[in-house]
Amino acid sequence: MTNRPKLPRLSPSRINTYLSCPMKYYFQYEVGAPTIPHVAMLRGTFVHSVLERLMARKPQDRTNEAALNDFTEAQQEMSRDEQFVMLALSDAECEEFWESSRECLRAYYRIEHPRDANVVAIEKWVTAQLGEFEVAGFIDRLERDSQGLVVVDYKAAKPKKAQWSTDYLRQLTLYALMCEAQMNETPHHVRIYYLGGGKDEHTRDERVVAQSVTSATLDSVREDARRVFSGLNTARASDDFATNVTKLCDWCDYKQWCPAHGGDIAKAKAEATVMVQLRRREVGLPESA
Ligand code: SF4
Predict the structure, then answer these.
(1) Yes or no: is domain 118-229 CATH 3.30.470.20?
(2) Ligand 1-lining residues (CB < 6 angstroms)
(3) Most buried one in 77, 102, 241, 249, CB count within 10 A?
(4) Domain-by-domain residue ranges, the chain?
């Protein structure tokens, strides 16, 4: 058997990062400047982990008691996680973290009962070759309804209308493209469950954002991926990654080193590493390699 040469690989999240700002991609993936974790990011990881445990059970076993056990198990695991320890939360902030996560899960139950989800796969690895490179990643949840496959993702964020969810929808449509390539079956929809935004503040319709998968949406994400691959090659060759200044810069981990904000790119890796090591020391973690 001949081994196929390994192709350069892009994930849907890398594609989204590059499209949002090439310079951010540079800091994150080319330089590898480490970052201090955020509460919102870890809340998302935690909620995913509880739902992943629950969905791994047979539908009839997805009881309320099972959900409580899965929450407790995921909570014990998260409490030991270095990223969580690095948040350096006070007892009150910690309780707020668990309570806001419980609120996301209550929002999930207002959308559907877990025993009604016809899950085909969770955390499924999929890839698709697009000429000289491939896209690859894990699908959170693939389910089947009366019309066929649906790609589903949970977001522990406040609901956003479909027109403001283009980056997430692009990401999920890329997964649909990979399903088509790998499973010979094209999902008919992609669907986001927005689970954040507080207690009872949003209707089910606001929390569920879905989009049909059509040849036009597949072509569009294929084209996005090719554009990113080609843009990346050009940016690497010229060592010139463009900046994209928007109001999102205020939430960017790399703003202090960004040339668009007067920063010095060359200092990013070393200074970010020192910041992370200081935080690790503050919370009693050993220095990372
Ligand atoms: S601060 Fe803005 S322009 Fe600079 S890297 Fe971050 S997102 Fe891009």
Answers:
(1) no
(2) 21, 23-24, 243-245, 248-249, 252, 254-255, 258, 260-261
(3) 241
(4) 118-229
